[in-house]
Amino acid sequence: MFPTRSKNVLTFIICLLGAFYLLHPALHWSISNSENKALTAALHRCAQLDLIPHPPFTFNPRRQRSERYESGTVPVLIKNATIWTGMDGGMDIVRGDLVLAGGVIREVGKVEFRELGGLGNVTVVDAQGAWLTPGIIDMHSHIGTYPVPLLSGALDANSRTGGVVTPWMRAIDALNTHDDSYKLSVAGGVTASLVLPGSSNAIGGQAAVVKLRPTSEKTPDSLVLESPYNADGLLERERPRWRHMKHALGENPSGTLPQGTRMDTIWKLREAYSTAKKIKVQQDEFCSSVQNGKLSLRPFPGDPNWEALVDVLRGRGKIHVHVYEAVDLSALAELSNEFQLPIAAVHHAHEAYLVPGLLNRTYGPPPAVAMFAAFGRYKREAYRHSEFAPRILADQGFTVIMKSDHAVINSRYVLHEAQQAHHYGLRAELALASVTTSPARVLELDHRIGYIKPGYDADLVLWDSHPLSLGATPSQIFIDGIPQIDTLDFKQPRLKSVSLQKAPTTPAYDVEAANAVTYDGLPPLEPEYHPSVLFTNVSEVTTRSHDGTSFTSNFRSDRTTTTVLVVQGRVECIGTRCQNLTGSEDVPVIDLEGGALSPALTTFGSQIGLEDITVEPSTGDGFLSRLSAEGVRAVDALRFGGRDALISYRSGISVGIVAPRSLGVFTGFGTAFSLGALHKLEWGAVVKDVTAFHVAVDYGHLQLGSSGSSVSTEITALRRLFLGGSRVEWVDHVLQGKFPLVVHTNSADVMATILALKREIEEATSSTIRMTFVGGAEAHLLAREIAEAGVGVVVIPPRSFPYTWSGRRILPGPPLTELSLSSALHTAGVKVAIGPETIGGFVSGSLVRNLRFDAAWVASESAGIITEEEAIAMASLYVEQLFGVHIDPKEASIVAVRGGKLLSFEGKVVGMVSPLKKGVAIF
Ligand SMILES: *[C@@H]1O[C@H](CO)[C@@H](O)[C@H](O)[C@H]1NC(C)=O
Ligand SMILES: *[C@@H]1O[C@H](CO)[C@@H](O)[C@H](O)[C@H]1NC(C)=O
Ligand SMILES: *[C@@H]1O[C@H](CO)[C@@H](O)[C@H](O)[C@H]1NC(C)=O
Ligand SMILES: *[C@@H]1O[C@H](CO)[C@@H](O)[C@H](O)[C@H]1NC(C)=O
Ligand SMILES: *[C@@H]1O[C@H](CO)[C@@H](O)[C@H](O)[C@H]1NC(C)=O
């Protein structure tokens, strides 16, 4: 074998040498040729490094057709709209017509139908003067990556294994195209979102700008607008597009490392950028030698993991930083200078208004500031949050953006963030810009979205009222020229009243805004009471009726105003002669400027009274242990004087009702207390020590923590409690109707089971149970049955969202359905109350202050089914009734509102008339 083999090897070598000999000239030629080729390729590659991102080749500002055009899209002519174009700093308003064709805006101004001959069939919409704005751009969203409804298999917004620094992660790789949120967000006028990786990692990875409409391709890629990756998924080098890179500082990334801290996070960022910088330097050296005609034998230096961060160092990335506090903004400013990194936007940035100079100290132009309106104080980082921050920062020339952090805030209502910022002093044109033109500019997509101009993408919203007015709702949304909702009256949309067709006149908050800064975000909130006050220029006085079950209108006029004298915290006199009864000159006079005296509100749903900072267990009462059926009482853990409590009081809410929090089915007894009190022993601090008995039954238990117990276990526990032999005294009280039984659930199936159980218990014990559902997302499915059982519903959140699987069958309300949950239940004869808006399914104490706006919205979206007075009852009387609290009308507080009504953006709460405190708190 051996000789044969060696012979073969020899032959092989000879052949090889021969071939080499024969081929040598060609090989020689080919080496120099491939050398040239390699040199050319290297030069080309190096030249690409300096390319600055630009719109894609396919983009032409005078284009008649978008590359996103879907064939079959019917052109639209919108006649007689009030068009906010976004131009001229948001001051440009065109009253006229608009043509959409080919997925783009063709014309803005005066357009005659006959001019449209070339377009074929055209849908004509008579806007009747309605407002038309660019589509809303939500610059901080996790839509499609944070699952709605919440399912554990799709929690894809944060890398959990990649480590602290993961610039190579891409949100697009986690984008679920079937999320329930898209349609809902679009229904709120949102047409595009920046989908960011989460904030668990110091560098979470790359974000993507997506449009929210379904596409015919049905792929995640087809949602992306001007992706830096081409159709094959490869990085587009010839004509680079912006990459958006998510960074996070502070509390969230600290949690990624075991016992990580702020110091670790900053070090990790510095280390990451040093690594990327080394690669960049190697590339630059490689390129300079190539440019000098020297072909290095090394390949182009690079590392797929670090390629994105090197791109950022080359100025081809937009850095978006999740950052809250001064300490982190300072670290960010240093990092940005060290590595010469301009920061596109700081997100959340709750303390930016306290240290605006730090924004200027970052490298390059100051970042835009993307914020929440009222959501704050949920962690230390957000404790100094101020509702005046958008206005304070805008006044100093910074770009202000309002965002959702979807599904933290449901992005369907991101416009409401801008509305609130406007209410607290952000100028109207900047408030509109904060969700349209400003994000378009920060994302550098302002060549095609964010404005209404010929050649721009046909992403538009037609509104039923001025977009900054409370409850403004789209009547149609276009994305790439395609109408997004099937409304029957699309060609002649419904308009709200004339008074809502202009931006609300908002109150003066200059003193409050200045105080927020003076007091480092913690202005004093403790109420000071004056025994007597004379209110002048009052256009409406509404109080509770004598029996305390309804309201009485004592004065109401559109034309004249009256004077109201309050003595010892009670209304003593209504009428112009009251002035003469003051008796002394010391009585403060408060001009309500045509405002109102209205019944104070009552809130249930948050942990105000038991907890100060949501994510800090040491600031709260803790949780009950599992399946504890003891009659635990919230009153025993009450705490007063929290900032959310006092801010709510200053927002017209006098009473808070709170239940203990539990990991199990039995939650315990709630309690009612005064939000303005500073300690429990104050007169009137505890309104009713023991209110209703609360139980929580739901699949997955999102609402109240996670028990892990099954619904059948929970129902069995309830049945045993009420029908088992050994009964405790308080159970008898529930059976006697002394306390309502409050069931927390969103599931129609649970509600149905509970209604059957209620009947079973009532029949077995000859009792009548007073029952209330809390949450109630699916209650509309059995509205009639709930009404027949005499059960009330406290709707939380007031505008439904499918947070959980068991609560996903929501009634989304206008413009998707005619009825909202509250109007459907009200129509069926159910007693309805409302609670606060939620944050990812949980209630934040900071949003309780918005109860008056939430009530206004309930009335506004009910199309007349619920009057404003009924909406006030749903946020006061009915809340009390459904939890078994009776407030003596002689002891009920009254809110003084200046410049408008309680349920309006025009009104400012300036006082709380408190009979129990024998005085008026002046704010
Ligand atoms: C225009 O609409 C009519 C009626 O819907 C239809 O029959 C016709 O084919 C359409 N023409 C074009 C060019 O789309
Ligand atoms: C446009 O709408 C307004 C408001 O409905 C109306 O007063 C006006 O007459 C309309 N103009 C035209 C040209 O239709
Ligand atoms: C930030 O810089 C701008 C432009 O230079 C300047 O107008 C502004 O006063 C600065 N603001 C702060 C807070 O330093
Ligand atoms: C109030 O008193 C003044 C004199 O003190 C008197 O001139 C005026 O008529 C009184 N007004 C009313 C409405 O009684
Ligand atoms: C009442 O308030 C309105 C609105 O601010 C103001 O125009 C009016 O002058 C005031 N009337 C009186 C009598 O002060």
TrEMBL record:
GO molecular function, one term: allantoinase activity
GO cellular component: cytoplasm
Sequence ranges assigned to domain Amidohydrolase-related in this UniProt record: 389-473
An example Gene Ontology biological process: purine nucleobase catabolic process
Stored Pfam families: Amidohydro_1
InterPro entries assigned to the protein according to its UniProt record, in alphabetical order: Amidohydro-rel, DHOase/Allantoinase_Hydrolase, Metal-dep_hydrolase_composite, Metal_Hydrolase
Name of the molecule in the record: Amidohydrolase-related domain-containing protein
